[in-house]
Amino acid sequence: MHSTFQKVSKIVGIKPSNFRPLPTSDATGFALSPNVVHMAMKDDVASGLVPTYLCATMGTTGCCAVDPIEGLGLVAKEYGVWLHVDTAYAGSAYIRPKFRHYLDGVELANSVSFNPHEWVLTNMDYCCLWVKSPSSLQDSLSNNAEFLSNNASETKGVIDYKDWHVALSRRFRADQTPSAGCDCSNKTDETTSIYRELCKLRFVLNLYLP
Ligand SMILES: Cc1ncc(COP(=O)(O)O)c(C=O)c1O
Prior knowledge:
Blueprint: H1 3-11, H2 34-46, E1 53-57, H3 69-79, E2 82-86, E3 111-114, H4 116-119, E4 128-131, H5 134-141, H6 151-154, H7 189-207
Helix pairs in contact: 2-3
Bound molecules: pyridoxal-5'-phosphate.
């Protein structure tokens, strides 16, 4: 688990004593065990606490440990907690078909993030966030000051990304994804296939450009 999640939990008002960094070991390649998470949640419920959020990491920054998403997803489902899959560091690797099996169970996640600026040679700071139900974010974060009112938002002609995150005035970075106009003729099969996937990613992201 990355240090930013500990920081964020402080920001949203979770007492540090209610934040659960759980042990991992060599035996699981330092991946989080669904059994360990299950036991921790069971104990918390028994002491009157309400488990709310589980962060699985696919590629930790320290040693690139990959958590088993499917098993953790089933535990998250049982306890009704939000499952976030953090692939910030290594998510770009899942573009490669040979690594895709690590994503098995990702359909159980409520949100997934990855940072192309880590391995996809884009500029800082570029984080892709996928959310299963954007309305959960909108219900928590939307507010409407008079100076923000505009026809496009009111007629739902645009997506108001200010309602998806904390900041108000930040640019939308999808257009940083490498240009689709690359000549692959001198590249190896492997780089060509990665590049093709990146071009598809750029296409998908561009669909969401306002
Ligand atoms: C695994 C992991 N999670 C989260 C983060 C934090 O991402 P951000 O800088 O977009 O907040 C990083 C690192 O930079 C990371 O490597």
